[in-house]
Amino acid sequence: MTAIDVSESIPATVRPIEKGETLNKRILRALIAIAAAFSISLMVAAPARADSAAGSWSDNHQLCTSSSCVRGGNIVRLWQSIIWADDLSGTVGTSFIDGEFGSNTAAKTRTWQDVMNIGIDGSVGPQTWGKAYGAVNRNTGYDTSTQTGYFYYGYNRTFALRKQNSNGVWTFLNPRTGTWTGTSH
Predict the structure, then answer these.
(1) DSSP 3
(2) Distances (CA, A) of 179 to 12, 14, 26, 112, 176
(3) SS (H, E, C) 39-85
């Protein structure tokens, strides 16, 4: 058996094990330091809150087809549910609620804006969100201990919503899936 000279394999920057310190303690200290650095990096990278529909929707993010807007996620599904509920033609099915703000959603948004007699631009900004919020009404049937129930009363259909009592964040009963869905993106 050949003897290994350990002093040659340890870089000069590694401090020697101090008296009373075992290799296991040293490894444990290193792992704790790594875990602490990792958890601090997660705290810095994590947003303070999710960007969900909150309050009266007036400060919801703008939805549109350009890269400067939100183009996907549950907030888009909420908007598509509103279009579905207000569909006067009866041609918008639940398969339309796909969470992608593409050309079809932009076209249906322009139609919705025209019917609602507001500025027609195919994007969902403060004026459009505000008009939609006007159709939201209280419904105690969907109350829980932590949430208050509402309905969106569209021209053709209705769907349920809930608002968190603690922070004002909304969820909705997705017409496509029949499940409660958050409004983040």
Answers:
(1) P
(2) 60, 56, 50, 25, 8
(3) HHHHHHHCCCCCCCCECCCCCCCCECCCCCCECECHHHHHHHHHHHH
Give the type of residue at 106.
Answer: A
In whole angstroms, what is the distance from residue 43 CA to residue 18 CA?
33
For the stretch 82-99, pLDDT in tens is 999 999 888 999 999 999
156 Cβ contact partners less than 8 Å away, ≥ 6 residues apart:
85, 86, 87, 88, 90
> 73 and 184 in contact (C-beta within 8 Å)?
yes
Q: Which residue has the tokens 């006007």?
A: 134
Cβ atoms of residues 96 and 112 within 8 Å? no
Distance between alpha carbon 137 and the CA centroid of its chain, in Å? 23
Q: 146-156 pLDDT, tens per residue?
A: 999 999 999 99
